[in-house]
From TrEMBL:
Pfam families: SNF (PF00209). GO terms for cellular component: membrane. Coiled coil: none annotated. It comes from Halovivax ruber (strain DSM 18193 / JCM 13892 / XH-70). Keywords: Membrane, Transmembrane, Transmembrane helix, Transport. The keyword Membrane applies. The lineage of its organism: Archaea, Methanobacteriati, Methanobacteriota, Stenosarchaea group, Halobacteria. It is found in: Membrane. This is SNF family Na+-dependent transporter. The chain crosses the membrane at residues 7-28, 40-64, 84-114, 134-155, 167-185, 211-237, 249-270, 308-334, 346-366, 372-393, 414-435. The keyword Transport applies.
């Protein structure tokens, strides 16, 4: 077998992992889930989940990946627990499921780049999204997004993924800060900050059962957990890297981007609607698009330039996440069956494209795919990883965490304790509440 590729530099790994983490989950989903789930109470649970559950869990995936040095499915076999390869397979399938509708949203982003350039939505920024989000054009752009993802994955780790993510993080941060400051100066944005940043604990207590599963799964989604992505990326990592240092940096950067996106979108919705509109009226999957397109329309010619730049960066963020999902499946087939990388990448992309046509045809399907991912697939997948790392692999995992750190023994022991106890309990409760939630109100898709 050919020698396995590795990251050219430590920075390469961090950027690629951040590239996987930072994406539509932060920019598109986080603001709209925040507005759909009541504002700051959701943000509060999300923050706790990202640091207290997400960070230990991401380290768990890093341990599996680096130790096994192979794709997410065979990793468990390599670690001498062949029965657990099913966990890798569940992750892989969860990732493909998510990618199917993620790519549809990626298609919308491409559409908004073009429509910013031409000013197509300037006369009716609020209504434009409804006109372009479903149907044949949406299917075509979903195909274009998937094909682009496949091209990058086909080039392999170093040439494709590392290069594609290098500029993305700084440019996203700059744009979001600029837009957040701009939103702050607009009339009517004032009340948004209380709504977004000051949690109403009574509201949280009364809506615990729906806020918790969405907020915790949002942390998983956003950190690319439970889909084999972080296992796969860590498998290209050398032993001299400190997993806790890399993991913490990734969680901090990822959370910062999500919070900033909220600071852009929520105030812009308040400016336009006086409050956050309900899900059907602009506070749903369209929140990002409706929020920012009004601003670009108001700015006239300059808005065209800013619009192209903004959606351009969102597209890069979306692509660098999508490639990590496609990479999970591709690297499995390439490692295991020795298939040609480009053919494999395009084969998977074709299958995912076909599945995603449902979501591109009708947004109700997209909502259904998304609910199932949040309420069931992500928590199941993360729960199994946590059980494996904590209780099955345990002591060896501690050794792996210590590698590349100075000492690090106390941290590693505390980490194992957390994974075995409250992290496991937290993910279990999330799954329980998610299943109860979806069972009480099964979302019914239609054509
Ligand atoms: N974390 C990405 C985001 O927040 O957009 C989405 C994602 C990418 C999820 C890769 C899962 C994954 F494996």
């Amino acid at each position: 077998m050919a020698e396995r590729e590795t990251w050219a530099t430590r920075l390469g790994f961090i950027l690629a992992a951040v590239g996987s983490a930072v994406g539509l989950g932060n920019l598109w989903q986080f603001p709209f889930k925040t507005s759909a789930e009541g504002g700051a109470a959701f943000v509060f649970v999300y923050l706790i989940a990202a640091f207290l559950i997400g960070l230990p869990a991401i380290l768990g995936e890093f341990v599996i990946g680096r130790r096994a040095n192979i794709n997410a499915v065979e990793a468990f076999d390599r670690l001498k627990h062949p029965a657990w390869t099913v966990v890798g397979a569940i992750g892989l399938l969860t990732g493909l499921w998510i990618l199917s509708y993620y790519s549809v949203v990626g298609g919308w982003v491409i559409r908004f780049i073009v429509d910013s350039a031409t000013g197509a939505y300037f006369t009716d920024p609020g209504g434009h999204f409804g006109d372009v989000s479903m149907g044949w054009a949406a299917i075509g752009l979903h195909g274009l997004f998937m094909a682009t993802t496949a091209v990058i994955v086909a080039f392999g780790v170093e040439k494709g993924i590392e290069k594609a993510t290098r500029l993305m993080v700084p440019s996203i941060l700059v744009m979001l800060v600029g837009l957040a400051v701009y939103a702050f100066t607009l009339d009517g944005s004032g009340p948004a900050y209380g709504y977004y940043l000051s949690p109403d604990f009574d509201y949280l207590a009364n809506n615990f059962g729906s806020i918790v599963p969405f907020a915790v799964s949002q942390a998983f989604f956003s950190l690319s957990l439970g889909m084999g992505a972080m296992i796969t990326y860590a498998s290209y990592l050398g032993d001299d890297d400190s997993l806790p240092a890399d993991g913490s940096l990734i969680v901090v950067l990822n959370t910062a981007v999500g919070l900033l996106a909220g600071l852009v979108v929520i105030p812009l919705l308040f400016v336009q609607f006086g409050s956050v509109p309900d899900v059907a009226a602009g506070g749903g999957p369209d929140a990002l698009f409706v929020g920012v397109s009004q601003v670009f329309a108001d700015l006239g010619l300059a808005g065209r330039v800013f619009g192209v730049a903004f959606f351009g960066v969102v597209l890069i963020a979306a692509l660098s996440s999508a490639i990590s999902l496609l990479e999970v499946a591709t690297s499995y087939v390439v490692d295991n069956y020795g298939y040609n990388r480009p053919v494999t990448a395009f084969g998977f992309a074709g299958a995912i494209f076909a599945l995603g046509t449902l979501s591109a045809w009708n947004i109700a399907w997209l909502g259904w795919f998304d609910s199932l991912a949040y309420s069931v697939l992500l928590p199941v997948s993360v729960l199994l990883v946590v059980i494996f790392v904590g209780w099955v692999y345990g002591p060896e995992a501690v050794d792996e965490i210590k590698k590349g750190t100075d000492g690090g023994g106390t941290f590693a022991t505390a980490w194992l304790w957390s994974i075995r106890t409250y992290v496991l309990a937290g993910v279990f409760v999330t799954l329980y509440l998610g299943v109860t939630d979806i069972y009480a109100a099964p979302p019914i898709p239609f054509l």
